[in-house]
Every structure is written in structure tokens, then in C-alpha cells.
Automatic annotation (TrEMBL):
This is Branched-chain-amino-acid aminotransferase. It catalyses: L-isoleucine + 2-oxoglutarate = (S)-3-methyl-2-oxopentanoate + L-glutamate; L-valine + 2-oxoglutarate = 3-methyl-2-oxobutanoate + L-glutamate; L-leucine + 2-oxoglutarate = 4-methyl-2-oxopentanoate + L-glutamate. Belongs to the class-IV pyridoxal-phosphate-dependent aminotransferase family. Keywords: Amino-acid biosynthesis, Aminotransferase, Branched-chain amino acid biosynthesis, Pyridoxal phosphate, Transferase. Pathway: Amino-acid biosynthesis; L-isoleucine biosynthesis; L-isoleucine from 2-oxobutanoate: step 4/4; Amino-acid biosynthesis; L-valine biosynthesis; L-valine from pyruvate: step 4/4; Amino-acid biosynthesis; L-leucine biosynthesis; L-leucine from 3-methyl-2-oxobutanoate: step 4/4. One of its GO terms (molecular function) is branched-chain-amino-acid transaminase activity. Its cofactor is pyridoxal 5'-phosphate. It comes from the Bacteria. It is an enzyme of class 2 (transferase). It holds the Pfam family Aminotran_4. The keyword Metal-binding does not apply. The lineage of its organism: Bacteria, Bacillati, Actinomycetota, Actinomycetes, Pseudonocardiales. NCBIfam families: ilvE_II, PRK13357.1.
Length: 356
């Protein structure tokens, strides 16, 4: 189960199963709080079949990345933001919050041990998966009295394959909803993801790589693509604008989303949060106002959307190829993560010192 490669070749590792050799573990109990943090080999778990998390979905997680910099250093991108979101997810599910310092210490420990699995290939990264779940063996319908925190990692290549800028096709989901007002759409909990698979399967059957979620109330307003935030590049009276749906409580507040809003504004683009309907998306593409659309997230980074399929008619975004704004922002984000562009302010947490 462990990855014994000290330094892999530059062959694409894919996404999700090139695990590194170690994991961090900690335990929470009412008497001791969080305690017993340790680093050991990545091994299977022994769990009681009545573990409360298995039955009532008290499970939250995060996703963040470490990158090998142009100077040979290894840094983690904005882990403090993930630590705070991890706390927010725990609060929403009546779970104990892991202190930010403990979260960051676990990240530092694992990256310091396993960074050798990361090659010099700039398209590769070390994907970190923090996880917290309820461990008490009890089937009473209530929050658990015991929890476990784990942190594991895998070497990641392209989420959609080796061609990182290949446009994806998407299917507008009219039958299923990802999240509802007052629900858990703005937290990273396991229960959000399993129910999305049926819509993703429908997208695949329609020849699309991803599904686009609409709001649950009117089934009209665009919210997310799969597990990623969406951006629209629009040509307005004042020039190029970058628009993304606002955080209504049903969308995940993506760290990559926040980073791109900052980088785009610093580049000189007008940025805004705005509700965009499916009808408006189709119409403004036809009018040439919306010229590019891209999704973003930790795993996929920045991924262009080329074509849209919908029950009311399909359409192409721009000319169906990655546009200049998408290319520029993706490159700027990657350069920032690898230290090839200025750090906007504490975004890179250096764990391994530069080697050159």
C-alpha cells in the first residue's frame, strides 16, 4: 500500500493513488482533547464496524498541495486557509475543531518526511489529504465522543489527464442538486460527494467530463462544476471582467477561487461576484460577451470549459479552446505556487529550504 519510490520519474502519476510512505495521526477524547499526534507508516486502519462515522457521516476532509519550487524548496500553498476551513467543516458537523497550529504542524511533519517522492516536474505536486472522522463504536443517533485525525499524501499529476489545458465538456444537471440553503454545501464533508456521483455518471453517459450544478430552489442559477468553482470571462464596457458566483452558503469557499480573485485583480482585471443563469450564460456566449469559462480547485488548478450540453440546447464557449485569460491566470497561479512569481503575502509556507 505504501509508495517506496524515493524520487519518481517524470512519468505522469495520475491522481489519487500514488501514495507516499507516511501518515500523521491524532486522537480526540472529551477528557484529553486532541492528543497523541504521531507520524508513522501509511498502513490500513482497524476499525469497529459500529464506528459512528461510518453510519452517520461525521467525516470531514481537506485538500491542499505542496510544490517543489524553482529554487528546489518545497512549500505548501496557503495551508492556513485550509486549516480554518477544516475547523468550519468540523463545527458544522458537531465535531471538535483541530487547532490551526496542530493542523500546520502535521502538514510540516508529513511534507518534511515525504517530499522526496516529489519529482522536479513542475506539473507534479504533493496532494495532502487531512481527514477527521468519528470513531466511537456506538449506534445511538448523536455526535460521537471520540474522533481521529489523519493526514496522508499522494503524488499528483493532471486531474483531467496529461494535457492540463485541454477544455472539458460539461452537462447542466437539471435533475439533481448538490446543495440546498441551510445545508452543508459550504463545507467539505464526505456526505456532499457520494450523492454527486449519479449526476457525474449521467454527464459521462452524455459524453461530458463534468457536471454543472444549479441552485436547488429555482434550478436556474449556476453554482459549481463538479467539486470546483466556476469563473466567467466577460467583455464589458470597461474591458475584460472576471465574474464568479457569490458565496451563498451553498458553494464551497475555494482557496483556489480566493487566490484567483486576488491575482486577477492585481493583474488589472475587474473582478466581481454575480449570479449567472444558464440562460444568460448561453445568450452571452452567443453574443460574444462571455468569451471564456474555466473551473478551478486544488486538484484541477485551472481547467477551461469548451462546450456545454443542456436539455434546452448545447453551445460552445468562445471558439472552444483555452482563452488568453485562462492561460494567463493558470500560469500566474502555478508560478506563485512554485515561487517563480512574487508571493502576495504568506501564501507559500516553506517546509524544505531552497537547494539553489
Amino acid at each position: 500500500m505504501t509508495n517506496t519510490l524515493a524520487r519518481p520519474s517524470t512519468a505522469g502519476p495520475g491522481h489519487g493513488d500514488a501514495f507516499t510512505a507516511h501518515m500523521v495521526s491524532a486522537t480526540w477524547t472529551p477528557e484529553l482533547g486532541w492528543h497523541g499526534r504521531e507520524v508513522g507508516p501509511l498502513t490500513p486502519l482497524t476499525l469497529h464496524p459500529a464506528m459512528l462515522g461510518l453510519h452517520y457521516a461525521q467525516v470531514v476532509f481537506e485538500g491542499l498541495k505542496a510544490h517543489r519550487g524553482v529554487d528546489g524548496s518545497v512549500s505548501v500553498f496557503r495551508p492556513d486557509r485550509n486549516a480554518l476551513r477544516f475547523q468550519a467543516s468540523a463545527r458544522r458537523l458537531a465535531m471538535p475543531e483541530l487547532p490551526v497550529d496542530d493542523f500546520l504542524a502535521a502538514v510540516d511533519e508529513l511534507v518534511a518526511l515525504d517530499h522526496g517522492a516529489l519529482s522536479d516536474d513542475p506539473s507534479h505536486s504533493l496532494y495532502l489529504r487531512p481527514l477527521m472522522f468519528a470513531t466511537e463504536p456506538n449506534l445511538m443517533l448523536r455526535p460521537s465522543a471520540e474522533y481521529r485525525f489523519l493526514l496522508m499524501a499522494f503524488v499528483a499529476g493532471g486531474f483531467f489527464g496529461d494535457d492540463a489545458l485541454a477544455p472539458v465538456s460539461v452537462l447542466i444537471s437539471r435533475e439533481h442538486s448538490r446543495a440546498v440553503a441551510g445545508g452543508t454545501g459550504d463545507v467539505k464533508c464526505a456526505a456532499n460527494y457520494g450523492p454527486s456521483f449519479v449526476a457525474q455518471r449521467a454527464a459521462a453517459e452524455a459524453g461530458c467530463q463534468q457536471v454543472v450544478w444549479l441552485d436547488a430552489a429555482e434550478r436556474r442559477w449556476v453554482e459549481e462544476m463538479g467539486g470546483m468553482n466556476l469563473f466567467f470571462v466577460r467583455q464589458g464596457p470597461a474591458g475584460t471582467e472576471l465574474v464568479t458566483p457569490g458565496l451563498t452558503g451553498t458553494l464551497l469557499p475555494g482557496v483556489t477561487r480566493d487566490s484567483l480573485l486576488t491575482l486577477a485583480a492585481r493583474t488589472g482585471y475587474a473582478v466581481s461576484e454575480e449570479r449567472i443563469s444558464v440562460q444568460q450564460w448561453r445568450r452571452e456566449c452567443a453574443e460574444g460577451r462571455i468569451t471564456e469559462v474555466f473551473a478551478c480547485g486544488t486538484a484541477a488548478v485551472v481547467t477551461p470549459v469548451g462546450t456545454v450540453r443542456d436539455r434546452d440546447g448545447d453551445w460552445t464557449v468562445g471558439d472552444g479552446t483555452p482563452g488568453p485569460v485562462t492561460r494567463l491566470l493558470r500560469g500566474l497561479l502555478l508560478d506563485t505556487q512554485r515561487g517563480a512569481a512574487p508571493d502576495p503575502g504568506g501564501w507559500r509556507r516553506v517546509v524544505v529550504a531552497p537547494t539553489r
